[in-house]
Amino acid sequence: MPAILRNTSRERIEAKESSILDAAEKIFSQAGFDGAKISEISRAASVAEGTVYLYYRNKRDLLAGVVGRFWTQLTIGAEAAINPSSSAYEQLEQFSRYHLQSILDQFEVVSLTYRARPQQDQDLDQVRHYVRVFDRIMQRGIDRNELPDNIVIWQLRDVFFGTLEFS
Fold this sequence. Notes:
By secondary structure, the chain is mainly α. It is built from 8 helices and no strands. Helix 1 (2-35) packs across helix 2 (38-45) and helix 4 crosses helix 6 (107-115).
């Protein structure tokens, strides 16, 4: 019985945090970081303002939570969008389409990521997990002899993402 209570309690905590992040994403997208107020976010999340501070120290920390969730969801979606049995070139096309469509669909959140430039190693780790999707595609291509084994993956990654961001 105690395990059930712990799971239920944890689920409530996770649901409340998700509600806070949903509300923060909406308010930040509408009002921008400077215009967003914790009181508005708490109202939109249907929690007391103090509850927000139980989860996040301040508005900057809350923004980092929104951006972190974005990167996590982006990574999960990218992995799901790619068929690992396809050729490396097909996987790159799948990844490119996913990336560009995600940026267009979530442009307001993407603009927040620029405001919240990674401040800590933890934030950078979330971005690194996402770009490693590209690295895995390239490595599969090398392992299958679809790509030359002397390519420098990090250089191609920079060109790939630089081109997508520029476009």
